[in-house]
Amino acid sequence: MSAATQATNLLEIRGLNKNFGGLQAISDVNLDLKSGIITTLVGPNGAGKTTLFNLITGHLKPTSGTISWLGESLLNMAPWRIARKGIGRTFQDLRLFNHMTVQENIMTVMERGSWLWQRNAIDRDRVEQILQETGLESKRNERAVDLAYAERKFLSMARLMAAQSRLWLLDEPASGLDPRSFERFVSLLKSYAARGVTICIIEHNLDIVIQLSDTVAFLDQGRLLAQGSSQEILKDPHLAAIYFGER
Amino acid sequence: MLAYIQNIIVLFSINAILALTLNFIMGYAGIFSLAHAIFFGVGAYTAAYMALNVTDSLLICMLAAMVVSALLSVVLALPALRVRGEYFVAASLGLQIIGVTIFSEWKSVTGGLGGMIGIPPPVLFGYTFSSTGQFVGLSLAVLLGVLVILALLVRGSFGRSLMAIRDSESAAQAYGKYVNAVKTLSVAVSAGLAALAGGLYAFYMSFVNVEAFTLNMSILLMAMVIIGGTGTLLGPIVGAAIVMALPAALTYLPFIPSSELGTIQQIIYGLAMVILMMFRPGGLVGGRGKEKSA
Predict the structure, then answer these.
(1) Considering the entire predicted model, what is its pTM?
(2) Residue ranges per structural domain of chain A
(3) Nearest chain A Cα distance for residue B30, angstroms
């Protein structure tokens, strides 16, 4: 048996549907995200990949179906509660805390449970480690808005690392990266996967799909059409035709 | 001349407290409120009511003003904070209009348009504040206290949470921030501390009526924050000083006829805002632009 089939389910999605008025954005999706496994979501634009992330993180409410995390239903749970369960995400448009410094972006994520009267002892060593791993040490006091594009991408990852989430949902994290940054990004992701972080990536870059994926899920028009190894999915001529818009 | 300067210092302190507390929600949490004068008013009326009917103790009157204002802000903020950005501005404008109507119509408590008169001087540990000089010390002490409290808040984890929410509410939620609670708490802190300015104002003037708490006041406070620099601690104080000093400075310009002072003052405010937004969108103290230049 492969590692992907042996691992335990962290997140289970069953019969998930999401309608926007007359548009069926997600249609009867069943998907398991297994502990320590890297899953890549692929599919053409408008397939429903980001909508699926938004449903998992509570930013959207499903029309029907269930999403459970370690057996606990996430339905009707606010995004901040879901985040505190251990589900972290990045956004396609990054949504950095633009007018805060790099260091503040990291620190505020680490202080997630703080109130007026609580003093959160920041783990400075952890902050340093994250800055080092993302190559942002020299940029620590710069505002996020003033960073270069690749640095902004790495800051987006740094926030996720600071959140200490067990599941990372990455929405096109490598898009627009230059080759050198891309290599660093892949090795960063591999190192966190090796430490037991479960990762689900939306990605159009087939290099990422091939290099990183344990399993690939193919979505089209809100439906999960196929799931398997990257070899199986990428070699399927029917899926390739859909992906490249030739159907 | 001394009394004139002392008067300016007291009024400056009151305005600086209001600008600081407005900046706390506007500059750090991104909540643009046009109803800040209402919490100033609630503080003033509560302190005045307490002093006239219950006790002249400064501590008790101020505490009551803070509690009433903070609680009221929570009640008003809970529904209003469900909307964001420009929608909240519109909602706060509604609150401002409702507040002014209540101040002017709830005659049994606020005295209606005539207001409340004969507010006794406050007493603190047996010491009575009755002269302008005494109020200078008191108002500066309160200003310093408010500044320290806000500095501690914005430089700590709460301040970072506020700024994260200001920059991206959805990302803040995705990283575990309980956005509604943090925003509501920030509004309560802002309103509670703004009520201190209201209490000071009521005791200093020994009279309150609705004219001090109108939409004009809310807009003027917003101008102080923007001119000084949103999201900075010093900015609102500088903004308050400039807005307060401008009318006094204009009176020393001999070529401006006194009958035109008000008009020229308005034009200068307007021009200052336009020029600042063009060249220093972060305000005089903020300095850096809000977005990266191309």
Answers:
(1) 0.88
(2) 35-60+78-114+121-243
(3) 12
Q: What are the residue boundaries of the structural domains of chain B, listed by start?
A: 2-212
The candidate with the shortest Cα–Cα distance to A129, out of A103, A100, A147, is A103
Query: Cα–chain-centroid distance for residue B270?
Result: 20
Burial class (CB in 10 A: 0-12, 13-18, 19+), B101: exposed
**Closest CB from A59, A99, A120 relative to B157:** A120
Confidence band (pLDDT; 50, 70, 90) for A116? low
For residue range A132-150, what is the model confidence (pLDDT) as tens digits?
999 999 999 999 999 999 9
Please say whether the beta carbons of B228 and B21 come within 8 A: no
Digit-coded pLDDT (tens) for B180-216:
899 999 999 999 999 999 999 999 999 999 999 999 9
Chain B residues with CB under 8 Å of A78 CB are: 173, 178
Minimal Cβ distance to B171: which of A95, A120, A143: A95
Subunit contact A97:B168, Cβ cutoff 8 A: yes
Backbone angles phi, psi at B120, to 5 degrees: -70, 155
CA dihedral over A73, A75, A77, A80, signed as positive or negative: positive
CA distances from A206 to A54, A104, A240, B95 (A): 23, 34, 12, 54
d(CA A82, CA A79): 5
CATH code reported for the domain at A35-60+78-114+121-243? 3.40.50.300
